[in-house]
Amino acid sequence: MGDKPIWEQIGSSFIQHYYQLFDNDRTQLGAIYMDASCLTWEGRQFQGKAAIVEKLCSLPFQKIQHSITAQDHQPTPDSCIISTVVGQLKADEDPIVGFHQMFLLKNISDAWVCTNDMFRLALHSFG
Amino acid sequence: MRKKDFKTYVDQACRAAEEFVSIYYDTMDKRRQALTRLYLDKATLIWNGNIVSGLDALNNFFDMLPSSEFQVNMLDCQPVHEQATQSQTTILVVTSGTVKFDGNKQHYFNQNFLLTAQSTPNNTVWKIASDCFRFQDWASS
């Protein structure tokens, strides 16, 4: 763990934290976004912390579990981090489905926040 | 920079993204030797978990990669808020679809790009600062 580049450490911590919050209590996700954050969820755009949290909390499932297959982390030229996740999720009793998600993380006042978030289901993978 | 409303900002970003994506995959499939012109000198690529950093390495990598046939089925795009990029215009693009590399079976793929605008008086050229590519069916490939 100590040998990994710092952006991998930060990125993988963020990913772990994000999916833990998402799977256990989505109402707490607001802390990772800011007013300038953008979310693209299945092709629809949401701007700002409030709109994003409202969208995530309104998703129509009771139980959700994410499983990460692979994650990649890259530093950007202006010291942000791009974290990309490929995995599977299960909502309620629905069949398991693949997903892909990308986060842009920025350090603001010593905390890493998500300024850009893009999510898509991989609906073709299980046809 | 003139203030734009958010929707205009997003629409412009998405148009630029669509145009760039079309050029990128066309170049990848048909003019592979020209592909690294679309990257910044210090661009980094992670390809199925393998890090490729800088133009020399990118040139070698794409030279060795078998010929490809890409089919892009989906594209998402977001402008990056100007504060996050110290006023350099930046957009994030995510693509997915299928690809067949010569000698390999077809795969579903996902790719994301961080694009930076290089503006001249006459036009804007987008280049890749960061690129991340993975097969979707990673666990089973």
Automatic annotation (TrEMBL), chain A:
GO terms for cellular component: cytoplasm; nuclear inner membrane; nuclear outer membrane; nuclear pore. InterPro entries: NTF2, NTF2-like_dom_sf, NTF2_dom, Nuclear_transport_factor_2_euk. Keywords: Cytoplasm, mRNA transport, Nuclear pore complex, Nucleus, Protein transport, Translocation, Transport. Pfam families: NTF2. It comes from the Eukaryota. One of its GO terms (biological process) is mRNA transport. It is found in: Cytoplasm; Nucleus; Nucleus inner membrane; Nucleus outer membrane. Gene3D superfamilies: 3.10.450.50. Residues 10-121 form the NTF2 domain. Mediates the import of GDP-bound RAN from the cytoplasm into the nucleus which is essential for the function of RAN in cargo receptor-mediated nucleocytoplasmic transport. Thereby, plays indirectly a more general role in cargo receptor-mediated nucleocytoplasmic transport. Interacts with GDP-bound RAN in the cytosol, recruits it to the nuclear pore complex via its interaction with nucleoporins and promotes its nuclear import. Homodimer. Interacts with RAN (GDP-bound form); the interaction is direct and regulates RAN nuclear import. Interacts with the nucleoporins NUP54, NUP58 and NUP62 (via FG repeats); recruits NUTF2 to the nuclear pore complex a step required for NUTF2-mediated GDP-bound RAN nuclear import. Interacts with CAPG; mediates its nuclear import. PANTHER family: NUCLEAR TRANSPORT FACTOR 2. This is Nuclear transport factor 2.
From TrEMBL, chain B:
It is found in: Cytoplasm; Nucleus. It comes from the Eukaryota. The keyword Zinc-finger does not apply. It holds the Pfam family NTF2. One of its GO terms (cellular component) is nuclear RNA export factor complex. Residues 16-135 form the NTF2 domain. GO terms for biological process: mRNA transport; nucleocytoplasmic transport; protein transport. Keywords: Cytoplasm, Nucleus, Protein transport, Transport. Has a role in nuclear-cytoplasmic transport of proteins and mRNAs. PANTHER family: NUCLEAR TRANSPORT FACTOR 2. This is NTF2-related export protein. It comes from Aotus nancymaae (Ma's night monkey).
